[in-house]
Specification:
The structure holds two protein chains of two kinds.
Chain A: E1 2-11, E2 14-24, E3 29-33, H1 40-48, E4 53-62, E5 65-66, H2 72-77, E6 80-83, E7 90-94, H3 95-109, H4 117-130, E8 141-142, H5 148-162, E9 166-170, H6 178-192, E10 198-202, H7 206-211, E11 216-221, E12 224-229, H8 232-240, H9 242-248
Parallel strand pairs in A: 3-10, 3-11, 6-9, 9-10
Antiparallel strand pairs in A: 1-2, 1-4, 4-5, 7-8, 11-12
Helix pairs in contact in A: 4-5, 5-6, 8-9
Chain B: H1 3-6, E1 32-36, E2 41-48, E3 57-66, E4 71-78, E5 83-92, E6 97-106, E7 111-120, E8 126-135, E9 140-149, E10 157-166, E11 172-181, E12 187-195, H2 199-207, H3 212-228, H4 234-251
Parallel strand pairs in B: 1-3, 2-4, 3-5, 4-6, 5-7, 6-8, 7-9, 8-10, 9-11, 10-12
Classes of the chains: A alpha/beta, B alpha/beta.
């Protein structure tokens, strides 16, 4: 489903990704863990196509398409969702307007009929309920005045509404309390656990992985994957730390 | 004296950023006089849009007197003409209110400006001016706002807020807030800022599937929205916003 091969990327001339190779087949949740500065957020931005992140070598194939050849909004229409570590505030634009425009843009790009106002509202309310987010918050401006936890929940409501094929979630668990972590984790399972979907879950902590059980865990260090294993690798990391586990790699 | 000699020059503060060369032949003394009787509410909208009867120079000079307890609301979109200028001189009576929501949009070499002189002549008057400018190409947007509070106009509450958004290099906006306050128990708030579209927001919107054009339209709409927020007529507000947004969409 997602096939990353020998990916090199740089920002302002500085190489951050240095030969990253990773494959996530449909139906899998693949967790990426790694120390600060390993390139985790860079990986998510490169996959999303953020301006300023330059790919110098390698390829990314998404459902048989050359992902790097697509504009950021075309990647979204192709079914890629990027969950932001720091969701962006957009004053003056309501969540409902933003998400309805986003969903209908994606549907249009795929040759599907747009959702009517009523259909969209019902969908938005359903997904807000799933993430236990007060639907009234959807009337407010995008992420403006939201707490850290509300922003992360709102990201997952967005994911639920847009219903992507593949999600790259960058530290979706940071800033969440224990209860919210469970709600968000269960939300990810409900929205993305399907035989035809995949998730790349970037996280620092084992706790989210207790809810969203990964099929595989990889360690990213200095811009490349240094070790891949099963869920037990995350437990090993939690108890021993990166230095010890990577020394064994 | 020949007419040209009487034309304003850029040395004059109120015309400093104007396309004064386009004033030739304009009836500069032609002020529209609006008198609002005590307790009355007056609302006027001005739309300078692309239309057959829009002239290369659109000069609108209004002199407004707002009676005791009366209310004057003016909403304007300046989106056409090589040089468009709305100039409002408003004198407020006791407990009178002046509300202005102004938008200038434009590219190429156009100059579009809103110039106000708000005279708080009696106590307890209030005024609120919100102006937004979106320009590209070599377009210029100006807001010159004078607020005068005379010595006995105590408890005046005046607010003025200007923001400019530049969509391309080469465009410019000029903001000149000027406050002359002779009373000592007043509130006069003013703010001015200039910026460009938030790249982070644009990427965030793109990552959700919005095309660059649609993302820009939403961001510009959000930016302009403040200017029309106090217009409590949905239909008029939407049509004014539509004119401004369509102008940006057609140009870029």
């Amino acid at each position: 489903m997602l096939k990353i091969d020998n990916l090199h990327a740089q920002i302002d001339g500085k190489t951050i990704l240095n030969g990253l190779t990773l494959e996530v087949p449909a139906g899998e949740v693949h967790a990426i863990m790694g120390p600060n500065g390993a390139g985790k957020s860079t990986l998510s931005y490169v996959l999303g196509g953020r301006p300023g992140y330059e790919v110098t070598q390698g390829s990314v194939e998404f459902n048989g398409q050359d992902l790097l050849d697509l504009e950021p909004h075309e990647r979204a229409a192709a079914g890629l969702f990027l969950g932001f570590q720091y969701p962006v505030e957009i004053p003056g634009v309501s969540n409902l307007q933003f998400l309805r425009e986003a969903l209908n843009s994606q549907r249009k790009a795929r040759g599907e009929e747009p959702l009517t106002g009523g259909e969209f509202l019902k969908l938005a309310k359903d997904k807000a309920g799933l993430l236990k987010l007060d639907p009234e918050m959807l009337k407010r401006h995008v992420n403006v005045g939201f707490s850290g936890g509300e922003k992360k929940r709102a990201e997952m409501v967005q994911m639920g509404i847009l219903d992507p094929k593949f999600a790259v979630l960058d530290e979706t668990d940071s800033g969440l309390d224990i209860d919210a972590l469970r709600v968000v984790g269960e939300g990810i399972n409900a929205i993305m656990r399907a035989p035809d979907k995949g998730v790349l879950l970037i996280t620092h902590y084992q706790r989210l992985l207790e809810v969203v059980k990964p099929d595989k865990v990889s360690i990213l260090s200095q811009g490349r994957i240094v070790r891949t294993g099963g869920p037990e690798l995350a437990i090993e990391l939690e108890s021993e730390g990166y230095d010890a586990v990577m020394a064994d790699a | 004296m020949p007419e040209a000699a009487e034309l304003p020059t850029r040395r004059e503060e109120a015309w400093r950023y104007s396309a004064v060369e386009r004033l030739q032949g304009e009836a500069l003394d032609d002020w529209r006089v609006i008198d609002i009787a005590a307790g009355e509410t007056f609302r006027e909208t001005l739309l300078i849009a692309d239309a057959a009867d829009t002239k290369p120079t659109e000069l609108h000079r209004w002199r407004v007197s707002v009676g005791e307890g009366a209310r004057c609301e003016i909403f304007a979109v300046l989106s056409s003409a090589e040089f468009a200028r709305l100039e409002i001189e408003v004198t407020l009576g006791k407990r009178a209110h002046f509300e202005l929501g102004g938008i200038t949009v434009g590219g190429r070499e156009t100059v579009r400006e809103i110039v106000t002189r708000t005279i708080h002549a009696e106590p307890e008057g209030t005024s609120n001016q919100t102006v937004r400018a979106v320009h590209w190409g070599h377009g210029t947007g100006n807001f010159l706002g004078n607020i005068d509070v005379v010595r006995h106009a105590q408890k005046t509450d005046a607010a003025q807020d200007f923001k400019g958004l530049l969509l391309e290099k080469g465009a410019s906006v000029n903001a000149v807030p000027q406050l002359e306050i002779f009373a000592d128990d007043v509130k006069c708030a003013h703010g001015a800022s200039v910026g460009q579209l938030d790249e982070t927001a644009r990427f965030y919107m793109a990552a959700r599937g919005l095309s660059p054009d649609l993302a820009r339209r939403l961001l510009v709409q959000a930016f302009l929205g403040d200017a029309l927020v106090s217009l409590d007529d949905d239909e008029t507000r939407e049509s004014m916003m539509g004119i401004a947004l369509d102008k940006v969409d057609r140009a870029l």
